[in-house]
Design brief:
Elements lengths: L1 H8 L18 H7 L4 H15 L8 E6 L6 H13 L5 E5 L7 H5 L8 H6 L4 H4 L1 E2 L6 E3 L8 H5 L2 H13 L2 E5 L8 H5 L5 E5 L10
Parallel strand pairs: 1-5, 1-6, 2-4, 2-5
Antiparallel strand pairs: 3-4
Helix pairs in contact: 3-4
């Protein structure tokens, strides 16, 4: 429960998001748009408010979403949070930082094999060519792409930090979806460069040890 989680970690629970009544990932954004008064949409708004007011003097600009293990809802959370930030009239970028398990295509129906984060980091494509605008949500998206090198090494590079610094100047908010922390080290590396980390924990499922 959220009370146990706070007691065990000493970290505040920012919100509780119910499971969405959708069958496919492509239904997520239409559901939140068509059902703005639903419990799920209200929970996302509450999460956004709690996150931005958590440090009211220094609200986070680079926000990372992760979890302990797969299947806890971190990507759904990051997509929904980014879309909600757009509703504030802000410039928002959503980055697919989980390059080992690419799922953004399933959420957004983007062109296959488009250049993305890895291409921008390795110099295979300029950043402006890698960025895509999603008309349905109003956000920009930077898909992951296939990595030939170890992704953790790419995220530890100075080029990645320079990229994030450039994005700070372009966007009001940047949300980065990353792999689970107990599976690969990528999130641990990316987490050192962001302002806030939102960790999804599955109610009545994630173990205390995890």
């Amino acid at each position: 429960t959220s009370e146990e989680l706070e007691a065990l970690t000493g970290v505040s629970v920012l919100g509780q998001i119910p499971k969405m009544p959708i069958r496919k990932r492509t239904e997520l954004l239409p559901y939140l748009t068509d059902k703005p008064a639903s419990a799920a949409a209200e929970a996302i708004r509450n999460l956004r408010t709690s996150l931005l007011l958590h440090d009211i003097d220094n609200p986070p600009q680079l926000i990372m979403s992760t979890s302990a293990v797969p299947g806890e809802g971190k990507t759904t959370q990051s997509v929904a949070l980014a879309a909600n930030l757009v509703s504030l009239g802000k410039r928002v970028l959503l980055i697919e930082g989980d390059v080992r398990r690419l799922t953004f295509q399933d959420y957004f129906g983007l062109p296959p094999k488009a250049p993305g984060l890895i291409a921008a980091l390795t110099g295979d494509a300029p950043l402006d060519e890698a960025l895509q605008h999603h008309d349905g949500s109003g956000m920009d998206i930077l898909v992951g792409g296939k990595a030939k090198a170890n992704p953790a090494d790419l995220f530890a590079s100075e080029r990645f930090r320079q990229l994030l610094q450039e994005l700070r100047g372009r966007y009001d908010y940047v949300v980065i979806d990353t792999p689970p922390v107990l599976v690969v080290p990528d999130a641990l590396v990316i987490g050192q460069a962001v302002d806030a980390i939102v960790m999804a924990v599955a109610w009545d499922a994630t173990s205390r040890e995890q």
